[in-house]
């Protein structure tokens, strides 16, 4: 609510007192060190997205499946986390980070290939929508008072744990379709919240002197692809429903046309 009140107050002030609009997006509350660190983190995230796109492209050419991506991600991420962040280990950690980013691309590649084969138009919409959601929630975290959203960590982790327990229970009691809907839309909300939480954690870690752009960018990369995958599935399902309604309408129109033709022939 504080973020919304801040937006309303700044918007009202700009109309009544001519306050400059750039105050709305001012990061003056962040120290120069934090601002510099955030620039490094988002630049590293951009590189990671490029590497992930390369992973999708390699998967399309070679047919590498999700299994290889899962192995690469599960090996490279803990390995990178176990290596201390220092100038001497920077090259090694960068290689592990690049492996994790490319593996993330391999993980999402089958879904991207399905979208390209069935509804290619939704792919760009999903990416643009994910970027928009990511930017908005990141701005909410950066423009809100410090530590305001750190409590979300426990809440979001609890929701994910609940989803995991529900998935295990579905193997014994059924209800997989309902669980899929809950994970799809609930997961979209949860990982949008993680963008806010992780962004504020990055700021607090930097203020405490813990600067690790690779680790911070990796956290945001996981959030980005979690949102992207769910949003892409939602858009593909909506496109499929639209196509189905269109086919049903064409079939009904064709049936009416055949009936009229039959009547005319009999006359």
Automatic annotation (TrEMBL):
InterPro entries: Bax_inhibitor_1-related. It comes from the Eukaryota. The keyword Membrane applies. Residues 257-267 have a biased composition (Basic residues). Keywords: Membrane, Transmembrane, Transmembrane helix. The chain crosses the membrane at residues 41-58, 64-83, 95-116, 122-143, 150-173, 220-237. One of its GO terms (cellular component) is membrane. The keyword Cell inner membrane does not apply. CDD domains: BI-1. Residues 244-267 are annotated as: Disordered. Belongs to the BI1 family. This is Bax inhibitor 1. It comes from Chlorella vulgaris.
